[in-house]
Amino acid sequence: MSASAIFVLDLKGKVLICRNYKGDVDMAEIDHFMPLLMQHEEEGLLSPVLSHGNVHFMWIKHSNLYLVATTNKNSNASLVYSFLYKIVEVFTEYFKELEEESIQDNFVVVYELLDELMDFGFPQTTESKILQEYITQEGAKLEVAKSKVPTTVTNAVSWRSEGIKYKKNEVFIDVIESINVLVNANGSVMSSDIVGSIKLKTMLSGMPELRLGLNDRVLFALTGRDKGKTVVMEDVKFHQCVRLSRFESDRTISFIPPDGESELMSYRINTHVKPLIWIESVIEKFSHSRVEIMVKAKGQFKKQSVANNVEVRVPVPSDADSPKFKTSTGSAKYVPEKNMVVWTIKSFPGGKEFLMRAHFGLPSVENDEAEGKPPITVKFEIPYFTVSGIQVRYMKIIEKSGYQALPWVRYITQSGGRVATLLIVFSNIRNSSLPIYINCHTL
Amino acid sequence: MPYLSGKEMVKELRRALSNPNIQSDRLRYRNTVLKVIRAMSQGVDVSDLFSEMVKACATVDVVQKKLVYVFLCCYAHLNPELSLLVVNTLRKDCLDPNPMVRSLALRSMTNLRLSSLVEYVEQPLTAGLRDRAACVRRVAVLGWAKLHNLQPGSEIDGAVVNELYSLLRDPDPVVMVNCLRALEEVLKDEGGVVINKPITHHLLNRLKECDTWGQSEVLRVLQRYQPQSEDELFDILSLLDSSLVSPHPPVMAATLSLFLSLCSGLPAVSQAALERVRGPLLAACGSGSREMRFTALCHIQLLLRSIPGLLGEHYKRFFCSYAEPAYIKRRKMQVLVELVNDENVIMILDELKGYCTDVNTDTAQAAISAIGRIGRSYSDKCLEILTGLLGLKQDQITSAVVQTIRDLVWACPQCSDAVSSALEGCEEVLQDSQGRQALLWLLGAYGERISSAPYTLEAFIDGVRSETSMELKMELLTSTMRLFLCRPAETQDMLGRLLHYCIEEERDMCVRGQALLYYRLLQRGIGETRNVLQVRRSDPSIGVLIGRQAEPISQWVSSFNTLEPLQHCSVERLGGPAGLPAPGAEPSVTLSLSPPVTPEEFECLWMQQRDTIRCGAVPHCSPQSLHAAMQLVNIQTLAFTPSHTLPWKVFLYTHTLRADTSCSTLVLGELLYEVKVTLWQQPHDVSSLRVFLSVLTTVLHTLSSEVTIFQVGPELFA
C-alpha cells in the first residue's frame, strides 16, 4: 500500500489540505503535479499515474477537487485508488457535498478524519459509521462523545454500536435496479446488463439478527424447489455485515445490520433485456439554415406500470439557435449550455407512444470545429417493478428481546446510472458533410 | 481576518494566544488555536507561533489538543529544541484514562519525526503495546515502524520484535495487520517478517476478519511462504478460493498474485486460477471508478502476455463508451487487438472503425493504428476500412492512415496492390510532416504502380525551398531516387533539380550529405545505384514468425498488482537502491524476455550498428528445436531464413539484467551458419555480454554433437 502523503488540491493545483504520513517524499513535490497534469493532458497522454523523478502521483478528481496520493515505492495501485475513493465516500458522508467550499469550511474535521483514516501510509479505520465515534465535528458534541469509550473500539460488531433504541421497530428495503443497454445504429441490442442494489433503512433496537430471502436460482436449486420465477445473480457484493461464509455454504443472507441507511448488497445480471423505452429519431440537418428533429419514444414495459420523470436528452449542434418545439405530451426545453434538448414526461404509461418535434435555426457561417456525436440518452424511473424479476421473499428479524418488527419492501427500476438506451434511425439526411451522430452506442 | 497580510496575521494571533484573558476562557482559547490552524492550511507561514502553541497543548480540552498536535507535527522539524517541551505533555497524555487521548498522544509523538526524541518515545510505546484498548495498540505497533524508519539501520530491541510477533495473535484484526506492516519495516534488512508454517496458518485463518486493506496486506506478505508439501499447497489454495472471486478488486488481485507465486511450478493450477478469476476481472473492468477500470485493464494486458486466449469471447466488454477518458479508450483498444480471432474480427473491426472518427484526435489515431496491427493477420478487411477512411479527406485521419499503411505494407508486402490504388489524391489532404513522410516512402517503394507518383513528387520538389523538416527532405531524396530507377523518363528532370537544390542551396548538413551521396552513386552508373537502392531493406526470405510467443508467467508476476503495469514504459526499475557489487566477484546476470521486442524495433535497432564476433561453427539444426531450446534460457528467436538457404540465418534477442547494479541491457544477435555471430548491445556492458555468450554457447553445444568453440574477438572485450 504505502502512500507517503495525501493531498487535496483545488482545480488550480493549490493545496487545500494535506497530510504527510511517512515523511519519505518531500512535500514540495506536489508543486510538480499540476504542471505535469497540464502537460500530459495537452499531449493526450493523461493517465491516473503521473511520475516526476521517482515520485509517483496517483490522483482522482471529484467535483472541483483533485485527491492525490504520492509515493516513491512500487506500491499497490488498485489499493491506493480504492483508498482515495474511500476518502471521498467518508468525506461525502460528513459534508453531504465534497467540494472546495466544504473542505475549507470543515478543515478541522478533515484533519481529524485524515488522521484516523490512515497511519504511516496504511489505511486504518475506514468504516464511516465507526469513524463518527472518533470524530467530533463540533465542540459541543465533543464532551458527550469523549466522555465514554467508543463501544465499537472493543466491540466484535464493528459496524453497529450497542444500546440503540427505537420506539417503533421498522426496516425498509428498497430494491433498485438500473439497466444499461447498448444499441447499435441498426437498432439491434449489442449487450445489456442490469445493475441492482438492495438498500436498507434500519430502525431497529438492540442487536437484531436479520435474514433475507430472495428468489435466487442457486438457492432454489439447492433446496430442490423449482417453482416460480428465479434469477441468476453475478458479481454479488455484500456489505461487510453479511456473513459471507453462510452465503457461500447455503446461500442464506444473514447479518446484523448497521443502524440507519446502508447498502446491503449489489449485484449484476447479464441477461438480454429489451430497452424499456425505445427511442427512434430522425435528424435532418440543412447546413447553414436549420435542423429538424423528430423523436419518437415508446414504452415497452407492462401496461399496468408507469415510468416517472422520463427525460429524453437529444443532443443538438452547439451553434443552433431559435428553438421551436411541438410535443404530444410533456414539455421540451432547450439547454444551450449542454447543447441538448430535454424532453420531460412526468408519467409515461407502458405501451404508449409519444412524439416530439424540434426545429432549430443554424447560422449561415458554420463552425469549423468537429463536434462530438453524443448519443441520445433516456432517464426514467419505474416504481413497483424490477426488470430482473428479483423478489424479496421474506425478511426475518430476530432479537433477544423478541420485539415485533415490520419490514417494508419497495421496488424501483431506473435507467442506467451511467448512460441509458438509444436508437437513432437515419433517414432522409440530405447534407452528409458532417456525419451526424453516428457513434450511438455508449455505456 | 482576511484583510490582514500574513505577517500581521501572525502578530495578531501571537497576541491573542499569549493573552491571559483568552487563555483562561476555554472556548476563546480554542477558537484562537483554530484560527492558527486555518491560517496554516491556507498556506500562511505560522511557524513563528511554535512556542505559543507548545503552551497551548497543556490543556484538558481534547479538541484543542488535537488541533495543537496537528500544528506541532507540521512544524516540529523546524524547532527540534522547543519540541522537547511537548514531550512531557505527550507522555502525560499517554497515561490518560481515555483511550482516545492515549492513542492520539502516542500517534502525535511518533509523528513528530525527530530523532532526538526517540529515547523519550520508546517507553510509552512499549507500554502502548500492552494497552487494554485496541485503538492504542494499533497506534503503538505502527509507532515502532515509524521509529525504525526515523533511524534506519539502528539495532532494534529483540524484546520488541518478540512482542510484535506475539501481537500477531491479538484479537483485533487491525492490530494484527499493523504488526505485519511494522515487522516488515523493522526487519527490512533481514528480508521482512518471517513467514513460517504456524504464522501462515494463523494469518489464513484470520483473513476473513480483516477489512479489504488488511486482507490485501496479509495476502501480499504470504507470497513469501513456501508450502512444505503439495497437500498443504492445495489446502491453502482451496481456503483462498473465495477471496479469489472477491468482489473487491484489490483483494482479488492480491489473491491472484499469491496464487500465481505459490503455483509457479504448477502451470496447470495457475491456468485454472486465471480461468476462475475471469469473471471478477471483467467486473473490475466495468467498475464505476475510471481509475480502477484503468488499473484492471493494465493488469489484463499483463495477463494476456501469457494467456492470449483468456478473454477472447468477452471482447465486447472492451468496447469503449462515449464518455470514457482517452487513456481508458487507448488501453481498451490495445486489449482488443490482442483479443482478435477468426470469430470476432468483424465485430471488433466494426467497432474500431467507429472510433476512427472520434473527436479526440489521439483516440482516432490510436484506433487507426490498432486496425493496422490487426491488419497483419487480417489484411484484406483492415485495408478496406483504412482505404475507406481516406475518403473522408480529413487531414489528421489521412495522416494516421497513411502512416499505418506504411507500417502494414512493410510487414505484409502482399497487400501493396490494394494500397497503391488508394493513395491517389492523399497529398492534398495531408498537412503534418509525419504523414507526408509516410506518403513519400510509399511513393518511393511502389512508384511504378501509382500512376500519379511523379506529379505528386514534383509538387513536393517545387515546394522544397519552404520545407522545414529535415526528415521530410531526406525521405524526399530517397523516394525520388527510387522512383527514378523505375520511371526514369518522368523523373529525371525533377531529380536533377532536387539534387541541385540540396547540394547547392540546402543549409542542413545531413540533407546535403545524403544528396551528395546519391549524386556520386549516380555517377557510378545506374547498375550500381540499382544495387544499392532497389534491394529490399530486409532479407526477403525472412518471414516474421506469426504471433508472439506466450510469455511464461514468471516474467511479470513480480510486478503484478503494483504500480508498474500502469506506467507506459518504465525504463528505470522501481524499488529500493541496489547494493554495490562485491569486489572481485563475478556479477550474476540473468536473461529475460521482457519487454518484448517486435520485429520492427529489432530491425530499427539492428540498422544502427553492431559488433561482429567470429566464432567457430554454429550447428545446423531444425528451427523448432533451436527455438524451443533458446526459449528455455530466455533468448527469443525472432526470425529464421528458410532452412535450405545458405547462409542459414537466425535472428534473436534477449535482455540481460545484472543483479548487482540492476542495470539491464538489450542484446540482439544474428547467428550465421558456420560463420559468425553478430551482436548488438545497448547499453554496452562487456561482462553481461560475456554471460550471454556463455549461455548461447551452452545451448548450441547441447544442440549439436559437434563441439563448437567461440573465438571471441579481442576488439570487443578490450
UniProtKB/TrEMBL annotation, chain A:
Keywords, sorted A to Z: Cytoplasmic vesicle, Golgi apparatus, Membrane, Phosphoprotein, Protein transport, Transport
Q: What InterPro entries would the database entry show?
A: Adaptor_comp_med_subunit, AP2_Mu_C_sf, AP_mu_sigma_su, Clathrin_mu, Clathrin_mu_CS, Longin-like_dom_sf, MHD
Taxonomic superkingdom: Eukaryota
Annotated GO biological processes are: intracellular protein transport; vesicle-mediated transport
Q: What is its main location?
A: membrane
Q: How does it sit in the membrane?
A: Peripheral membrane protein
Where does the protein end up? Cytoplasmic vesicle, Clathrin-coated vesicle membrane; Golgi apparatus
GO cellular-component terms in the record? Answer: clathrin adaptor complex; clathrin-coated vesicle membrane; trans-Golgi network
Q: Which Pfam families match?
A: Adap_comp_sub, Clat_adaptor_s
- Where does the MHD domain start and stop, copy by copy? 168-421
Record family assignment: Belongs to the adaptor complexes medium subunit family.
Explain the purpose of this protein: Subunit of clathrin-associated adaptor protein complex 1 that plays a role in protein sorting in the trans-Golgi network (TGN) and endosomes. The AP complexes mediate the recruitment of clathrin to membranes and the recognition of sorting signals within the cytosolic tails of transmembrane cargo molecules.
Q: Tell me what this protein is called.
A: AP-1 complex subunit mu-2
TrEMBL record, chain B:
InterPro entries xrefs: AP_beta, ARM-like, ARM-type_fold, B-adaptin_app_sub_C, Clathrin/coatomer_adapt-like_N, TBP_dom_sf
Output one GO BP term: intracellular protein transport
Provide the primary localization.
Answer: membrane
For membrane topology, the record states:
Peripheral membrane protein
Task: From the Swiss-Prot or TrEMBL record, state where the protein is found.
Answer: Endomembrane system
Provide the Beta-adaptin appendage C-terminal subdomain domain boundaries: 593-701
Q: Which domain of life is it from?
A: Eukaryota
Instruction: Tell me yes or no: is Transport among this UniProt entry's keywords.
Output: yes
What's in the keyword line of the UniProt record?
Membrane, Protein transport, Transport
- Alphabetical list of SMART domains matching this protein: B2-adapt-app_C
Q: Which GO terms describe its cellular component?
A: clathrin adaptor complex; endomembrane system
The family assignment reads: Belongs to the adaptor complexes large subunit family.
Q: What is this protein called?
A: Adaptor related protein complex 4 subunit beta 1
Protein source organism: Poecilia reticulata
